[in-house]
Write a structure and sequence with these properties.
Layout lengths: L11 H9 L2 H12 L3 H10 L6 H9 L7 H13 L6 H8 L20 H10 L8 E12 L5 E12 L4 E9 L10 E4 L3 E9 L4 E12 L4 E9 L8 E6 L4 E9 L7 E7 L7 E6 L7 E9 L2 E8 L2
Parallel strand pairs: 1-9
Antiparallel strand pairs: 1-2, 2-7, 3-6, 4-7, 5-6, 8-13, 9-12, 10-11, 10-13
Length: about 325
């Protein structure tokens, strides 16, 4: 792999994220650029009299926690030396985003991302959901199928999550149907490591909220992998698919597949801060996989909305 370096000797991508952040992405990029495993980073810190665990380093680079105690900030300063970074480059990113006063990634309540938030808030309250769900996503791979009538047929998800409090034993999956969707006819299929619990929907808002129960109760910092699918096919013509993120930091992969008999003429990816906001970061996408699918990949998604839109002839 060819890695472009700037005049400073720092790889171009690393130099960029050291300017723009966020902290966890800059740290992870720096570690990868130096080719160091976390246990080697820990060892080099120990040689400088800094004792920090591999688990803490992993949490920092994934955005699950942020350094905030004085000894942690001392460790960050030592990390700059270990990784060959300019002095204060990582600490500056912490100061820009609040100095590490939080132990979890930046967040916003999910229901504030979408229209008809009062309906969604009511459905979540019926399922006794805390405002932030107690989880944030580390990795999410989602596949969406669009049918021959240009309708959203189904979507399936494989997720890796981490708990940011003790006692988390479920995940709430939220499905926003296209115009004409019949929420009472949407079917939820549990995949590995979970089972379907309570299901609530609202016809006017065309939204379904499903409780997916885990096989275990998670403690603070524990991770979990699970999968599920929703079968729809009840709505009208679909023009886009979006995913909202309450927490930032996780990787997201979205793949949208189309029926061979009915392909769009143009596709693009985009981001929004909320449902009513103007799209940003729009990029044209080319159909692949036998000219039947498009995808987007974001290594540090959210908080906010990511999606793929398409145009029909």
């Amino acid at each position: 792999m060819n890695v472009h370096s700037t005049d400073s000797g720092i790889p171009g991508e690393l130099e960029r994220v050291l300017r723009t952040g966020p902290f966890h992405l800059a740290l992870r990029t720096a570690i990868e650029a130096r080719g160091l495993a976390l246990h080697r980073v820990r060892h080099r810190l120990a040689l400088r009299g800094i004792n920090i665990g591999v688990t803490s380093l992993s949490y920092w680079q994934q955005g699950a926690r942020r350094p905030r105690r004085p000894e942690s900030l001392t460790a960050v300063r030592a990390l700059e030396d270990v990784l060959g970074l300019p002095a204060e480059s990582l600490l500056r990113l912490l100061e820009q985003t609040g100095g590490g006063s939080r132990d979890r990634p930046a967040s916003r309540p999910y229901q504030t991302l979408f229209e008809q938030s009062d309906v969604l808030r009511t459905l979540l309250a019926e399922l006794d959901s805390p405002l932030d769900g107690g989880l944030h996503t580390l990795n999410h791979w989602e596949r969406v199928r669009i049918g021959a009538r240009r309708e959203l047929l189904s979507r399936s998800s494989q997720q890796a999550v981490r708990a940011h409090r003790d006692g988390i034993d479920r995940y709430l999956a939220i499905h926003h149907g296209d115009p004409g969707c019949a929420p009472d006819r949407v079917r939820v299929r549990a995949g590995e490591n979970c089972r379907v619990g309570r299901v609530r929907w609202n016809v006017s808002a065309q939204v379904v909220v499903t409780e997916l129960l885990f096989d275990t109760r998670l403690r603070l910092g524990e991770t979990y992998v699970f999968g599920y699918a929703l079968e729809d096919g009840t709505g009208g013509v679909s023009h886009e698919y979006v995913r909202g993120f309450s927490f930032g930091g996780g990787q997201y992969v979205l793949q949208v597949g189309f029926d061979a008999a009915e392909l769009p003429v143009r596709c693009h990816s985009f981001a929004r801060t909320s449902a009513g906001a103007r799209p940003s970061g729009t990029q044209e996408l080319t159909l692949s996989g036998g000219n039947r699918s498009v995808h987007l990949i974001r290594h540090a998604a959210g908080p906010g909305i990511l999606g793929i839109g398409w145009e029909w002839a």
